[in-house]
Amino acid sequence: MTKLLEWLLGVSVVVTAWGLLTFDLLDLKVPQVYREVVWPMPVYLLVVFGCYSIATVGYRVATFNDCEEAAQELQAQIKEAKLDLKKKGLKF
Amino acid sequence: MASRKSSSKRQANKDKYSVLLPTYNERENLPLIVWLLVKYFGESGYDYEIIVIDDGSPDGTLQVAQQLQGIYGAHRVLLRPREKKLGLGTAYIHGIKHATGNFIIIMDADLSHHPKFIPEFIQKQKEGGFDVVSGTRYSGNGGVYGWDLRRKLISRVTSFLSCSRGANFLTQVLLRPGASDLTGSFRLYKKEVLEQLVDRCVSKGYVFQMEMIVRARQLGYSIGEVPISFVDRVYGESKLGGNEIVSFLKGLLTLFATT
């Protein structure tokens, strides 16, 4: 099953469950309290996911490792390499 | 006594690593990357060869490669050039055909990938018997040098050249690939695994690297990770453009719908 189909399946299961509870399609006579909680769930979950995404990406940007030493080491090795290669006869 | 010693040495060194270097206008970087490869492979004692696949670079990359072959020997530096720019996937196929190693290492020739990590890749592969070992910039002490805040931000949300955080996040959510860095192109593959994957992958460019990992997971191959540092372009111009963002998203959605 492709990822797309997985998502579609997942989404339809969730939407069906939500629809059944909110609109009382199966005549389950679910208490009013539960219905009031379930009804705004989709929007609420989307907002939560949105906030999570922003927070995660933001955090990861802030903590993205800045490899200062790696860059310096590379610069030093480039100098070394150029000298060595010139000695070995490389014409740049 | 002498024969026992040499036969156990031969057994321990049965593995050979072929490094594929597709190049286009890397005249300045090529000698440096080859020098670094020779240095780290030499120190580690592993058997290796470097295959330079130049796509008809107009800046004389091939001439520099020929000089390097003269310096290090034709058994270490192999030249397999092509007439014109033909793309990464076909470069790999071309390189694999001429590789005599049982492991293939793919990396960028522009010094953003440092050969000092290769012995770590090899160690990791030996430890876990992995089919693929991927360098990651996103976990452990992997990271990036040379991206200003603007680039980091953009790259977070939409860019993808080196799969910034945002694009990476989107990719993780949609594809749940089980690997932390998908567009990274610094990897070690078992030769037969790479052959299988290149055969099945249909995307182009950077999405190609993503597809390789996703398909590897699909086919049940084991993937190990090694944190690497990625130092942005030392010489030369970066090939990032606006419409690459669009093609990244298209590629991501295609992978989403087909795997």
TrEMBL record, chain A:
Superkingdom in the source lineage: Eukaryota
Membrane topology: Multi-pass membrane protein
Keywords, alphabetical: Coiled coil, Endoplasmic reticulum, Membrane, Transmembrane, Transmembrane helix
Pfam families xref list: DPM3
Coiled-coil region: 64-91
UniProt pathway annotation: Protein modification; protein glycosylation
GO cellular component, one term: endoplasmic reticulum membrane
Transmembrane segments: 7-23, 43-62
Entry's localization field: Endoplasmic reticulum membrane
GO BP annotations, alphabetical order: GPI anchor biosynthetic process; muscle structure development
InterPro entries according to UniProt: DPM3
Main location: endoplasmic reticulum
Oligomer status and interactors: Component of the dolichol-phosphate mannose (DPM) synthase complex.
Known role: Stabilizer subunit of the dolichol-phosphate mannose (DPM) synthase complex; tethers catalytic subunit to the ER.
Family to which the UniProt record says this protein belongs: Belongs to the DPM3 family.
Protein name per Swiss-Prot or TrEMBL: Dolichol-phosphate mannosyltransferase subunit 3
Organism: Scleropages formosus
Gene name of the record: DPM3
